[in-house]
């Protein structure tokens, strides 16, 4: 791929959890190796955003409501970081923003 920007628009939404995890790891490896590229990853899954992203932009209705740095170094192991106060705080803030901007409870993964 020769582009300086890679866009992934919900690439894992129809995959089973095992395949999703494998491809998430592949995307993270590619992004690390290709540091000169920008990777834009669109997801409705809070856990996925935290696991893959360095920065999270929460968007709704065409505007950015929040930008957050992800406070975890790579490699990120979900079973380790998901028990930390930082993870819980970021995930809770993003879920609350989702509901405040009109999202329906249960619609967010």
Strand content: 15-25%
Helix share of residues? 40-55%
The N- to C-terminal Cα distance equals: 30 Å
DSSP helical segment count:
4
Summarize the structure.
The protein has 109 residues and is α+β, with helices and mostly antiparallel strands. The protein has a single domain (5-100), classed as Rossmann fold (3-Layer(aba) Sandwich), CATH 3.40.50.300. It has 4 helices and 4 strands.
Q: Explain this structure to me?
A:
By secondary structure, the protein is α+β, with helices and mostly antiparallel strands. It has one domain: P-loop containing nucleotide triphosphate hydrolases (Rossmann fold), CATH 3.40.50. It contains 4 helices and 4 strands, in the order E-H-E-H-E-E-H-H. The strands form 2 sheets. A two-stranded parallel sheet has the order 1-2. Helix 1 links the parallel strand 1 and strand 2. The mean pLDDT is 83. It is a peripheral membrane protein.
Topology:
Layout: E1 5-9, H1 17-33, E2 38-42, H2 46-52, E3 55-60, E4 63-69, H3 78-81, H4 85-100
Parallel strand pairs: 1-2
Antiparallel strand pairs: 3-4
